[in-house]
């Protein structure tokens, strides 16, 4: 990436970060569901998180790993997360993921809802694969282009097809829409073998609908838990999809 392109990408990430609503109820609970989905597959040892945003997932990871490194290109995100995690022994590094070249290797690397923003996600996956220990695992998660809510949106004419970028996708800075097969293909093209893949939370409604209805009489905690459990059986219709890869 040229210096000019690098600067433009950093500015784009800054703009997206400033516009992101980190208090959206559905996004908050989805981060918890992601951690629950990953939990059975953690390796003992160190963890690298790519992209901390406002620290929800970082806070959770800090309860699992004593050796945690966080990389983010946005200074404000790092400072916000640093304040939020308090005296936890976390190593924060401000840099683009493509430029991160640590002296150590990691047993776990977590990159959630980032690949859809990147210019070249396969190159980033290759780079992160090289940062794994020989038995390490790379945890990838992205929004699912095949979610039930998006299928409904196509039937409504809101989206032209499942690969279409919605207005919310464009606002969030998404460059592509993933489905489970394309996520796994990028992981394999990035030099990984798939240890596990699946979906997180069967999604019958759009984010804005869930945000408006969660916590009320219409969408209870039990309903949300039911959607999370159903997502294990219907991964292709989930809100997010994930792939856990190991060095090939």
Q: Return the structural class.
A: alpha/beta
Distance between termini? Answer: 26 Å
What are the secondary-structure elements, in order, as H or E?
HHEHEHEEHEHHHEHHE
**How much of the sequence is in beta strands?**
15-25%
Main beta-sheet strand count, sense and barrel state? 7 strands, mixed
* Main β-sheet, spatial strand arrangement: 3-2-1-4-5-7-6
User: Number of DSSP strands?
Assistant: 7
What general outline do the C-alpha atoms trace? globular
Work out the helicity level: 40-55%
- Supply the number of helical segments: 10
Protein model, in words:
With 248 residues, this protein is α/β, with parallel strands linked by helices. Helix content is 42%, strand content 23%. A seven-stranded mixed β-sheet has the order 3-2-1-4-5-7-6, with helices on both faces. Strand 1, helix 3 and strand 2 form a beta-alpha-beta unit. Helix 2 runs parallel beside helix 3. The radius of gyration is 17 Å and the shape is globular. The mean pLDDT is 92.
SSE topology sketch:
Blueprint: H1 3-19, H2 25-38, E1 46-50, H3 56-64, E2 67-72, H4 75-85, E3 90-94, E4 106-112, H5 121-129, E5 132-143, H6 148-156, H7 167-171, H8 180-189, E6 192-202, H9 207-213, H10 221-233, E7 238-247
Parallel strand pairs: 1-2, 1-4, 2-3, 4-5
Antiparallel strand pairs: 5-7, 6-7
List keywords for this structure.
248 residues, alpha/beta, seven-stranded mixed β-sheet, 7 strands
């Amino acid at each position: 990436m040229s210096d000019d392109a690098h600067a433009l990408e950093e500015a784009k990430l800054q703009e997206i970060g400033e516009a992101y609503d980190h208090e959206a109820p559905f996004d908050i609970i989805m981060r918890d569901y992601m951690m629950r989905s990953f939990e059975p597959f953690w390796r003992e040892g160190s963890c690298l998180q790519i992209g901390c945003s406002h620290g929800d997932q970082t806070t959770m990871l800090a309860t699992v790993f004593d050796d945690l490194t966080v990389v983010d290109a946005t200074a404000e995100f790092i400072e916000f997360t640093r304040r939020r995690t308090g005296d936890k022994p976390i190593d924060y590094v401000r840099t683009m993921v493509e430029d991160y070249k640590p002296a150590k290797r990691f047993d776990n690397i977590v990159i959630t809802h980032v690949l859809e923003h990147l210019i070249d996600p396969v190159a980033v996956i290759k780079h992160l694969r090289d940062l794994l220990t020989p038995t390490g695992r790379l945890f990838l998660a992205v929004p699912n282009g095949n979610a039930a809510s998006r299928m409904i949106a196509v039937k409504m004419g809101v989206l032209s097809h499942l690969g279409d970028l919605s207005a919310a996708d464009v606002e969030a800075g998404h460059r592509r829409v993933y489905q489970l097969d394309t996520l796994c293909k990028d992981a394999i093209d990035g030099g990984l073998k798939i240890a596990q893949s699946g979906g997180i939370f069967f999604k019958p409604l759009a984010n804005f609908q869930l945000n408006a209805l969660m916590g009320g009489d219409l969408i209870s905690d039990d309903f949300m838990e039911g959607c999370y459990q159903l997502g294990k059986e219907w991964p292709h219709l989930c809100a997010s999809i994930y792939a856990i890869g190991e060095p090939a």
